[in-house]
Amino acid sequence: MRDEMGTFRVDVEIENPARPGETRALSAVLVDTGAELSWMPAALLESLGIERYKQERFLQAAGTIVARWIGAALVHVAGKRTADDVVFGEPGDLVLLGSRTLEGLNFRVDPVKKQLVDAGPAPAAAAAAGRPEPVPWT
């Protein structure tokens, strides 16, 4: 399959947070900033013992609505790791790295170079101008 303009793929490892140390690798996972959650093959998630804990409905690009199960996983990409909900993909579903996982990994997409890059310091709440300093704990 030829990648379309602006799309690219990365290697990913999935781990069950309840069973640390055991991972499964996936090659050439499509980076999809249009998908909120990451989609992984159900058989891979099941092989790690990742439990399905809720079912959600998703609107696909073609306009169809599908129901899929979700479970919690650790997602490893390019030396970083984050905990996130992942979708139990069924046969025929794409394997995707979604925007929420990318945010958790603190990556941003460089569409020109077609790669993930460090997003830099994460935003934090700034002190409002004119507000008094917080009172120290006593």
Briefly, what is this?
The protein is mostly beta strands and 138 residues long. It contains 2 helices and 9 strands; from the N terminus they run βββαββββαββ. The longest helix is centred in the first third of the chain and has 6 residues, at 42-47.
What is the strand content?
35-45%
H/E element order: EEEHEEEEHEE
Mean pLDDT: 90
Helix and strand composition category = mainly beta
List the uncertain runs: none
Report on the architecture of this protein.
By secondary structure, the chain is mostly beta strands. It is built from 2 helices and 9 strands, in the order E-E-E-H-E-E-E-E-H-E-E. The strands form 2 sheets. Strands 1, 2, 3, 4, 5, 6 and 7 form a 7-stranded mixed beta sheet that branches. Strands 8-9 form a two-stranded antiparallel ribbon. The chain is globular. The model has no long low-confidence stretch (mean pLDDT 90).
List the main descriptive attributes of the protein structure presented here.
single chain; mainly beta; seven-stranded mixed β-sheet; two-stranded antiparallel ribbon; globular
